[in-house]
Design brief:
Helix content: 10-25%
Shape: globular
Structural class: alpha+beta
Low-confidence stretches: 1-12
Length: about 575
């Protein structure tokens, strides 16, 4: 036994190091896998001989670091990790752990970085690092308390609390607020929902005149706020655009402080830029949308409609002239469809609402509860006039998403257990429904019955590796090809009806979000994009992020959009 151990360790400087390294590698494989792994998969991915893998796995199971399911012959993380995690959080020192991140943020942004916690009915600043070049002395330094709804740190933490708990805390708040603090309860709730959806909160002179800030919550293992970290400075230096560019940095800092204990699936990593942009890609609408989405070509208006989910607005654009009329909305809107009775319908936070081109109207159907930490996402109408739409958790919590079918009779849940339901589309013969589940990196296809509105036989149509991007919105062409926008992939791809990759079109932005066919003959593909959670350096590399692009799909044409009959 000793001779075998020495042989295993002959390449290591310390006896046992090689076995330890292999054991850690196996633990990481199991931890990172989306589902429990079989023995053969573990051995193959680790590049180990099966006898070696078997010995290491047996030792990890004996130590309760792994759990072996005899029924499925798979391995998952063991209970010992829960016990160790509990010990870690019992001794967690927020202030000491956050100190390096405060220093890093202050150096990076050249502004003041602060750490805050909820304290009774207010927010207490417990640590701060000043930038070396700071020339303006800020109010509310360490030890100061501010109103939770009037500070970026407070709003970042409030956004992570259940709605009922938020209301109780705010009802007790008595601290003074700044000149631009949001006083209306409904408007504040909408602002907090947007903060939760984008992953960071802003304060625009809400705590003090002339002072702006951006903050992200530090979450514990139960996804509750331990505190918040922020960058704060004079409004003339930290304008709203710069705050959004710094939002990614404070999110990363918050995640590092808690060791990614309970963070959402919101992506921060971006793939390298391609060597060149594909020929024929043009800017159709120059814009700076935080999260451009939901493009819809309106043949009767000869206009392209699209939305900005995180700076809530509906855009009515004329690609021929570049004109872009922006209708600000009081809540998040994610998708649009024509309405048979005139105008459009919009998938808003409160439900499917009428839209007359100037403002949102009444709610026609509400598939999610008003108090749920969810929002509607991408959607489309089928040929029978029913609107299909996905819902997802504001923080992208796994398996909290669903697919809903809406009509004049109300809403019906069609598929639960989705992660981030996104692009939707129907085949020309109305026999297939395509649905992207972004966080699972795949597009699924269902058998679809138009008469009954039922779906069945869910299966994978196309899947994507980490280096390809995340499938987001999609559109189906008249030949049955499926065009998919790949978030963080710098590209739009076309998959043939059998799922094979058929075409790749590289774009000048990393985060294309959705696509639709438009123009007089539906022969142009329009692609929306986003700039949310892109750093200042990334935005400098891709300054057109947030714009809408037009490209030639190579002679194929799209299918006309169906109208909602409700």
């Amino acid at each position: 036994m000793r001779a075998r151990q020495q042989a295993n360790d002959e390449d290591a400087g310390v006896p046992g190091t090689q076995a330890l390294t292999r054991g850690i590698a196996l633990l990481n494989l199991v931890a990172d896998a989306p589902a429990p792994l079989r023995f053969v998969d573990i051995a193959e991915r680790a590049g180990l001989a099966r006898p070696t893998a078997h010995r290491i796995l047996a030792a990890l199971v004996e130590a309760r670091l792994l759990r072996h399911d005899a029924a499925t012959q798979t391995f998952a993380l063991g209970a010992r990790f829960l016990e160790m995690a509990h010990r870690v959080w019992e001794g967690f020192d927020l202030r000491a752990t956050a100190a390096p991140e405060l220093e890093r943020l202050a150096r990076l942004a050249g502004e003041t970085a602060r750490l805050a916690v909820l304290d009774g009915d207010g927010v207490l600043y417990v640590d701060q690092r000043d930038a070396e070049q700071e020339a303006v002395r800020l109010v509310n330094r360490v030890g100061a308390r501010v109103a939770p709804h009037a500070s970026a740190c407070g709003k970042a933490m409030l956004a992570q609390l259940p709605a009922a708990e938020r209301r109780v805390l705010l009802s007790r708040a008595t601290l003074p607020a700044g000149p631009r603090a949001i006083a209306d309860a409904d408007a504040l709730e909408r602002d907090l929902l947007i903060s939760a959806a984008r992953g960071y909160a802003l304060s625009l002179e809400e705590a003090a005149a002339g002072v702006n800030a951006v903050a992200a919550a530090v979450l514990d293992r139960r996804a509750r706020p331990l505190g918040a970290i922020c960058l704060v400075g004079p409004a003339f230096r930290l304008n709203e655009a710069k705050l959004h560019a710094l939002g990614r940095e404070v999110m990363e800092a918050a995640r590092r402080i808690s060791g990614n204990a309970a963070q959402s699936a919101m992506t921060l990593q971006v793939a390298p830029r391609p060597d060149s942009v594909s020929p024929g890609v043009e800017v159709a609408v120059r814009a700076e949308a935080l999260l451009g989405e939901g493009p819809l070509w309106s043949a009767r208006d000869n206009r392209l409609l699209w939305v900005d989910i995180l700076a809530p607005a509906i855009h009515l654009s004329d690609p021929a002239t570049g004109e872009d009329r922006v209708v600000a909305t009081e809540e998040m809107v994610a998708a649009l469809a024509p309405r048979e009775a005139g105008g459009f319908v919009a998938a808003a936070r409160s439900g499917l609402r009428a839209f007359d081109g100037a403002s949102l109207g009444k709610v026609l159907a509400a598939p999610i509860a008003d108090t749920a930490a969810l929002r509607l996402n991408d959607g489309k109408c089928d040929a029978a006039g029913r609107f299909w739409v996905g819902s997802l958790a504001l923080d992208s919590t796994p398996d909290a998403g669903a697919l809903h079918r809406l009509d004049a009779q109300g809403a019906q849940l069609m598929q639960a257990g989705l992660h981030v339901p996104n692009g939707l589309g129907f085949s020309r013969d109305n026999r297939l429904l395509y649905l992207a589940d972004s966080a699972r990196r795949r597009v699924d296809v269902f058998d679809f019955d138009l008469a009954s509105g039922s779906i069945a036989n869910r299966r994978v149509f196309a899947s994507f590796g980490e280096d390809e991007g995340v499938p987001d919105g999609l559109a189906v062409d008249e030949e049955g090809g499926v065009w998919i926008a790949l978030w963080d992939g710098w590209r739009v791809v076309r998959h043939a009806p059998d799922g094979r990759l058929d075409r790749v079109i590289h774009l000048p932005v990393p985060r294309p979000t959705s696509c639709c066919f438009g123009g007089a003959d539906l022969g142009t593909l329009y692609v929306t994009s986003a700039r949310v959670r892109l750093s200042a350096a990334q935005l400098a590399e891709a300054p057109l992020s947030g714009s809408v692009f037009a490209l030639d799909p190579g002679g194929v044409r799209g299918l006309p959009d169906h109208a909602f009959l409700g």
